[in-house]
Amino acid sequence: MDTCNEYWEQALTILEAQQNISALAFNLYIKPIVPISMSSNVFTVKVQYDFVKEIIERKFLNYIEEALLFINKGNQMSLKIITGNEQPETEENPEEIKPVQPVENNINFRMPNGLMPRYTFDNFIVGTNNQMAHAAAVSVSKNPGTSYNPLFLYGGVGLGKTHLMHAIGNEVYKNNPNAKILYVSCETFTNEVILAIQKHENEQFRQKYRELDLLLLDDIQFISDKRATQEEFFFTFNDLWQNGKQIVITSDRHPSAIQNLTDRLMSRLAGGLPIDIGYPNLETSVAILRNKAETQGIKIEDEVLQYIAESVKSNIREMEGALTTVIAYSKLITNHNSVITLDIALSALKNTINSFKPEMSVEYIQNVVANYYNFTTEDLCSKKKTKDLALARQVAMYFSRKLLNSETLVSIGKKFGGKDHSTVMHAIELVGRKMEENPDFEVQVTDIEKLITGK
Fold it and tell me: Which is nearest to 23 in space by CA: 157, 119, 213, 176?
């Protein structure tokens, strides 16, 4: 029998690919879970806090038990969660687990500077969608602080922004092990700002960031409405930039599309080199999947890779998750040790592949546009008329008309809180005119269309 730890590693792989669990939720609540022991029908794990236990039991218990059921080849295992210093009850012949030590060949290993060694330029698949971003990233890694500063990579979820960011850091570290490098998410940066203010340690915070040679800041859209964080980052940015230190930033949108940024910070972000990473074409998608399979020593038919690439177009992460599901199914269910065939893939994905294909509707468009502009779908359908909200509503109306032939101006208006057809027509005309007059807005609209259509 596999050890308790091996079972949990397999469960994590399945849960990370689960479409109903966001990346944020996975990293916050599921990834930190520590496996303790397992018997024939109980899998015991530990979390640090009672409130985390409550969240897991309320939101994720079914998903975790389904993953364990899958791994245990259809034999039910219930999840038992303990917290803090609580000890598991004595079970009959439990299989104890040895503590897992972070080692460099662990796929999720991070160095103290936040870099993940597994992300390199060598294993980044270059296609027409990302070749400019790749070339700029390589250039920055060779001559940090001399050109493309800041380098601003933006695009949808799972398209390779974070991979390139870590690749830059790993290359700079390889060439200069003494370089002061830090990879940090914008959420972590924000939390550090708050903590520094609370503890009156602003000077220590500033010293930490302003002595860096390379700052890699992920998901800067997170600070869109956080004035104190924007202020601190602005001065950190200025200090690093003026001293010729390299800054690399990622976001899910162009700097001009990040709402509620101060003008001076937006100017700094757009003043470097903003590069869009688009969605990969079919050939690039197949190459990405083939590379992932080969690195794991998996033999898989080309038509399987083609099937996954054609079926999952929303982002690379979901596409790789589908491949992981097929590999896991082949190993755990069919005990298949030779080439993975299309029949195996069809069986593995029969209940999930349709979840990668959202149904195109006004409601779906509203959801994508609302998320892009940091509103809710309820906001789009409300009578509120703030400038930013009105623009988001108009963009959603524009795409509802453009992408849905079955919807009339009247039917679209009704789905936006009962707006009349003249309001919808005005929105369509305004968006079209604004795209012609404002290149930055045209970039926004193009980005949103890619998110909606997955192309």
Answer: 157
